[in-house]
């Protein structure tokens, strides 16, 4: 039976997952693990989770290890998710950057899933530029990363169906920033051209990514242990330029995890700024 798993095997799998990608599986989540891995085990003709664990301990091939991580990650996302971060960019952050005399802008969407977050940032920039001549934004680079190779493939396609577009995107924005392609919609080139995608595990070094002015790290830290959160936030602080900005998810906080940032409460919502 695929789903038979002993308490010891569950502990071994939890340890593997935490060390591989930071995700902490709670106690009693065997059903979640089994439901997420069943399809993969069938496709790979692996008889049981116990056999998968044996593979993990004996250095399983990279593609299979990645597929296990892929199956265990939650990729939930939407356009303009929670609205507040994008309103903060539009109403506060972009004009502050102009005031600070920034000449260019690099933004990191650090757990980009299927692309809605970086493309939403790019749409926000285009809308901002319609009414402002903020020079730093003309050449914005958005680096979008995720651990999941399959999500990055989806994100790069930049091609979504109606039901996915309906999650957070207004009819006006759909008409303005997407091109109809049969029953699907392609992100317009002006929006796509700012965004590049790269595989990046948040547990690994960020050195190769360069420095950023704004980091989005949204709805991913919730899955990690306090020690991992602290480590990631402190390393993100080092990846930011002076007075750089950090956006977390609506249910995430920095309190207790890093002293590198000050909290900014704007009328549009909360974000964080690197301390001087
Ligand atoms: C819930 S989605 C959040 C997407 C987007 N940031 C948002 O707020 O809508 C979480 C994403 O984090 C990614 N993820 C999980 N662990 C990761 C890790 N260790 N490194 C990089 N990305 C990771 C998952 O693959 C998934 O796409």
Write up this protein:
The protein has helices at 7-21, 30-44, 49-57, 62-72, 84-99, 116-131, 135-138, 149-157, 162-165, 171-177, 189-192, 226-238, and strands spanning 106-109, 141-146, 159-161, 178-181, 184-187, 195-199, 212-217, 240-248, 261-266, 269-274. The chain is α/β, with parallel strands linked by helices and 276 residues long. Strand 4 and strand 5 (184-187) form a beta hairpin. The model has no long low-confidence stretch (mean pLDDT 94). S-adenosylmethionine (SAM) binds next to loops.
Summarize this structure briefly.
It contains twelve helices and ten strands. By secondary structure, it is an alpha/beta fold.
Number of distinct beta strands: 10
Could you tell me which ligands this complex binds, including any ions or cofactors? Answer: S-adenosylmethionine
Q: Tell the overall outline.
A: globular
Q: How do the helices and strands follow one another from N- to C-terminus?
A: HHHHHEHHEHEHHEEHEEHEEE
Specify the helix fraction band.
40-55%
Structure classification:
alpha/beta
- Overall mean pLDDT stands at 94
Content of β-strand: 15-25%
Our measurement of the CA-to-CA distance between the termini, rounded to an integer number of angstroms, reads: 57 Å
Order of strands across the main sheet: 6-2-1-7-8-10-9
Radius of gyration, in Å, reads 20 Å
Q: How many helical elements?
A: 12
Salient structural properties:
alpha/beta; globular; binds S-adenosylmethionine; three-stranded antiparallel sheet; seven-stranded mixed sheet; 276 residues
């Amino acid at each position: 039976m695929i789903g038979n798993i002993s308490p010891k095997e569950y502990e071994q799998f939890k340890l593997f997952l935490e060390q591989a990608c930071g995700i902490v599986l709670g106690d009693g989540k065997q059903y979640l693990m089994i439901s997420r891995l069943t399809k993969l085990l069938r496709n790979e003709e692996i008889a049981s989770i116990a056999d998968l664990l044996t593979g993990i301990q004996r250095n399983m091939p990279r593609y299979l290890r990645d597929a296990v991580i892929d199956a265990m990650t939650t990729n939930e996302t939407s356009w303009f998710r929670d609205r507040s971060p994008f309103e903060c960019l539009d109403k506060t952050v972009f004009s502050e950057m102009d005031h600070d005399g920034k000449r260019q802008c690099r933004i990191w969407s650090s757990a980009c899933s299927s692309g809605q977050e970086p493309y939403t940032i790019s749409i926000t920039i285009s809308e901002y530029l319609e009414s402002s001549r903020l020079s730093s934004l003309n050449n914005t680079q958005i680096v979008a990363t995720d651990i999941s190779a399959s999500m990055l493939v989806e994100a790069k396609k930049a091609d979504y169906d109606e039901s996915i577009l309906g999650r957070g995107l207004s009819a006006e924005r759909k008409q303005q920033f997407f091109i109809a392609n049969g029953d699907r919609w392609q992100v317009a080139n002006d929006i796509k051209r700012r965004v590049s995608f790269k595989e990046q595990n948040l547990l690994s070094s960020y050195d190769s990514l360069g420095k950023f002015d704004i980091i989005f790290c949204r709805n991913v830290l919730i899955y990690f242990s306090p020690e991992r959160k602290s480590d990631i936030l402190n390393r993100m602080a080092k990846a930011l330029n002076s007075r750089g900005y950090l956006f977390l998810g609506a249910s995430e906080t920095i309190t207790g995890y890093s002293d590198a940032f000050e909290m900014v409460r704007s009328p549009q919502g909360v974000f964080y700024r690197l301390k001087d």
